[in-house]
Structure formats: structure tokens, C-alpha cells
């Protein structure tokens, strides 16, 4: 009988221990002190603390999913996790999601998070449940454009360098980049490129565009000065074209690209002299809207040369992007039925791998026309990446493309 009672008591103690474990309240020792507390707290004497700048760490480790970036998907993902007694992060889960790609990236980032300083109750480390929002936001035009003061400083500095002091490009990587870009758009090869060069000849009638006169309110004297500038540039271009010779035109153009680019800078110097300060500031602002560079260096050194005036990269031309866009665009039936017309301007980023992303409407006309414009730009094939000729690295280029919808 005593043996039966002893077994019963033993079983009872074992039952109590198991019950405590199941409830996650710990195991009691002989002095009734809790040895292992697996309780998860949401309130503590001292909350857990990230070691360092949490915002900076997340910014350095999060990667915007390409599918979300390409489709403009943004939002706030709410993540919950436990900071263990040793500070390690565990049990990461999405409490409120946005899109499967953003949710997966949030889980990936928080699962690789370094150890925190653990929460404390009565001086003892405890497990603590923490909730944190992670905002995914696509920033438009990530480039840092020139300020007007920087632009003027560049013109005054570069404008002092004569064109004859500029050396030809000798780097084979840069030359190949230019050749590839031209061949990508010139369906007719050398013969098509010759047509482009012919249009740079001074034999064409040089005049100041009417819309340029209207937009910047140029008087007769300013128009006369500007016409002289345009004619001067045509003559200088003709000298460079003759210097190219008649063979391997695209390659020779690539080799002379630093001279063509510097000629553009010298032209900007002269254009400034034809305008008053208010007109030139307006002109500068319009210039910045058309072309920006988002620097994505391959190395650790930032690409801060403000070099896009030297890139001399044009996506427009014979067989170029504009022709490709017009071939693909389909006038929405609903817009035709309601006689909706206009010019939609779409902005987009050409990344360092040549792919198009961050497609967005800069100037809207109608939802149907806007949607069609975005669709066409998103399906553009990859471009040849642009390379900074100064730092010898790829850079992302931000462009805007106008798409005209006009009923016949």
C-alpha cells in the first residue's frame, strides 16, 4: 500500500512538471524558484534595444523586389518577432502584408537581423515580442541634379577649356559602349548614321525654333545672337565630322565623343550669354527635367562627378526609342470614342543592367491614355548600359518620353 502511494506521489510530481512545461511557465526547483521562463512579454521594465541605428541597418540591407519596383507596388509591411533572452531575433512573421514580394523581403531582412540588447524584468533577461513597420516606397528620379549655382560654376570652369585641348577617347570599354548604343537604334548601320551626321551639317537652314522663342520670350536681338550660336556649333560639328573620315563612322564618333560632348558644354556657355538671368534660370529648370543621372557605382567610391553633360548619350534618333514607342502604342478605344487627345509624358529609369524600371506618368492626360503609355514603356527591351567616362563605371539614367495621342 505504501509502495502504491509512493508511486502515486511520484506520478503526481511528474504530472505537475509536465503541466508546467506545457504551459510554458517554467520548471520549479526545490526552493520554488523559476529556472526556465519561456514566457513572452509585451511589457517589461526595460524594453529591447537595437544595437546601433536600426533605420540605417534596414536601409543598408533591404532590397526592393524587382517585380514590385517594376509595377510600382508600395506600402507598409508590419512584422512581428521575438527578441530572445540572448538578444537574438526569432519567430519572425508578417502581421500585415502588402504584396507577396514585399512580405518575403521583410521576412528575409528581419531574419538576418543582428542580436539586440534583450528586455529585462527585475534585472533578468526575458523574451519580448516586438512589432515593427517596414515601409517600401519608390522614390522618383533618384538622381541628384545640378543646382543652378553648380551648373553656372561648371559652365564657367569648363567653358575656359578650348575644344582643341580635349583628347579623343582611348578606353576600349567606353568606345564599345558608344558603338553598341548607336547600333542598338540605327537599323541602317553606317548608312543610317551618315544621315544623322548630314543633319549636323551647316548646309541646313539654321534658325531658332519658334517654341523656344515663345517659351523664353526672346526679343529680336536675343534671337539674332542665338542664331549665331547655332551656326557656330554647326560649323564646329562639321570640322569634327570631317576629322572622323569616311570609314568606321560609328567607332570614330565614339572615339571623338569627348569632343562632341565638350562642344555641347561650350554651346551652353554661349546660350547663357544670349539670355537674361530670369530666362536662363527657366531654361535650366527645363533642361534638368529632361535628363538626370542616378549614380549606381560598381565600387565603394560614389560617382559624384555630375558627369551627364559628358555622357553625350541620346536615346532618340533614327530607329530610336521614339519610333519604337510609336510602333507599339495602341490608341485606347474608349479614348477614341470620347475624342480624348493629348501628350502623355512618361518618366522611367534605365538601370545599370540596361533594364527599364520605375515607369511613372509625369504629365497626365486621361487614365486610359496614361495606362497605355506606361504599358508601352514597361515592355521596352533592355538598353545598352551607360558608362561614366570619368569614373569608368555604369550609371543609371533617368529619362522622360513624350507620347502623343492624336486623332486623325
From TrEMBL:
Topology in the lipid bilayer: Single-pass membrane protein
**SUPFAM superfamilies linked to this entry:** TolA/TonB C-terminal domain
What keywords does the record list, in alphabetical order? Cell inner membrane, Cell membrane, Membrane, Protein transport, Signal, Transmembrane, Transmembrane helix, Transport
- The residue ranges of the TonB C-terminal domain are 49-145, 316-408
Indicate where this protein resides in the cell.
Cell inner membrane
Keyword Ribonucleoprotein assigned: no
Q: Do you know which Pfam families this protein is assigned to?
A: TonB_C
Query: According to its UniProt record, where is this protein mainly located?
Result: membrane
Q: What is this protein called?
A: Energy transducer TonB
The record's listing under PROSITE patterns reads: TONB_CTD
What is stated as this protein's family in its record? Belongs to the TonB family.
Annotated signal sequence is: 1-30
